[in-house]
């Protein structure tokens, strides 16, 4: 599928989980974390999703350590606009000066001259939307960003952003049991944008749903594979980014890209998943 003018496989890799517990600090086993990142690319994931707030800053450094110099087909998307004062806190900061520093910091940590996809991590109610996104549009014009995306936005905010600059992707929370961003997904389909569902397994809740477990048992797949395959089948705009720090789960998730769901499977799954 397309991210702007970039071609990526439809199943990406969310790199957040290779950081320490609560997405805070370095991994307990750095060598293992690097192995997971390298294996993710070997399995065909040529889109990696990260953010400066993962760690914070740790995730981007790990990606560069594992994969730089980067394969020609690897597309890295990062995000900025959230602060991490402590492990449980994710605080929006949409000040233009902060976003400019965030872009420059990501460039340095990822060892890039230009970021393939830079997504604004979350709107900040204290700062006018146009000021924040306008600052990123200026960074794009300066040659530091190739493509712009958004995260955690409404349909209305997507429209406002598109009046400022070209948007190629939206990243919102979405899974088989959390379809609250269905209107944003439909807007992405209509506009030809990629939709990146974060928490594509619902932080584990999708794996416990009765319908997912029923279909998984019937087709001899795991619940995680079924939940990911449903996302891929549900919308052509979907670019799932399941993440893990486990090599075993990484291999399991990757096989979901080849899992074909029947019409009956989709019928069983398309109803609201029940835990």
Keywords:
39% helix; 16% strand; alpha/beta; 275 residues; 10 helices; globular; 11 strands; two-stranded antiparallel sheet; single chain; seven-stranded parallel sheet; TIM Barrel
Descriptive account of the structure:
The chain is an alpha/beta fold and 275 residues long. It has one domain (2-204, 236-244): Alpha-Beta Barrel (TIM Barrel), CATH 3.20.20.100. Helix content is 39%, strand content 16%. It has helices spanning 30-42, 58-67, 96-110, 129-141, 155-162, 182-191, 210-219, 223-234, 247-254, 263-270; strands at residues 2-3, 6-7, 13-14, 47-49, 75-80, 82-83, 91-92, 115-120, 145-151, 167-173, 194-198. Strands 3-4-5-8-9-10-11 form a seven-stranded parallel beta sheet, covered by helices on one side. A two-stranded antiparallel sheet has the order 1-2. Helix 3 packs across helix 4 (129-141).
| N-to-C CA distance | 32 Å
Average residue pLDDT: 96
CATH C-level name: Alpha Beta
- Return the CATH topology: TIM Barrel
Count of β-strands: 11
- Oligomer classification: single chain
How many alpha or pi helices? 10
* Strand order within the widest beta sheet: 3-4-5-8-9-10-11
Structural class: alpha/beta
Percent range for helical residues? 25-40%
**Estimated radius of gyration:** 18 Å
CATH superfamily: NADP-dependent oxidoreductase domain
Give, in order, the helices and strands: EEEHEHEEEHEHEHEHEHHHH
The outline comes out as globular
Report the uncertain regions. Answer: none
CATH architecture level-2 label = Alpha-Beta Barrel
């Amino acid at each position: 599928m397309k991210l702007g003018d970039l071609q990526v496989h439809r199943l990406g890799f969310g790199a957040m989980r290779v950081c320490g517990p609560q997405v805070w600090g370095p991994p307990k086993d750095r060598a293992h974390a690097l192995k997971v990142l390298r294996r993710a690319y070997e399995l065909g994931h040529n889109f990696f999703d990260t953010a400066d707030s993962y760690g914070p800053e740790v995730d981007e450094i790990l990606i560069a350590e594992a994969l730089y110099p980067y394969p020609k087909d690897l597309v890295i998307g990062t995000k900025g606009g959230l602060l991490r004062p402590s492990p449980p806190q994710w605080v929006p900061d949409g000040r233009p000066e902060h976003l400019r520093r965030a872009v420059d910091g990501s460039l340095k940590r990822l060892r890039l001259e230009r970021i393939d996809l830079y997504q604004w991590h979350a709107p900040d109610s204290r700062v006018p939307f146009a000021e924040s996104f306008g600052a990123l549009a200026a960074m794009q014009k300066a040659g530091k960003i190739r493509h712009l995306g958004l995260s955690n936005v409404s349909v209305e905010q997507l429209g406002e952003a598109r009046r400022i600059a070209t948007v190629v992707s939206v990243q919102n929370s979405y899974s088989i049991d959390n379809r609250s961003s269905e209107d944003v997904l439909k807007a992405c389909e209509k506009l030809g944008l990629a939709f990146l569902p974060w928490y594509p397994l619902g932080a584990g809740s999708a794996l416990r749903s009765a319908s997912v477990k029923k279909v998984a048992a019937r087709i001899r797949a795991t619940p995680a594979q079924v939940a990911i395959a449903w996302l891929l089948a549900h919308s052509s705009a979907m670019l799932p980014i399941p993440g893990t720090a486990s090599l075993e789960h990484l291999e399991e998730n990757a096989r979901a890209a080849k899992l074909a769901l029947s019409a009956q499977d989709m019928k069983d799954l398309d109803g609201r998943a029940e835990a």
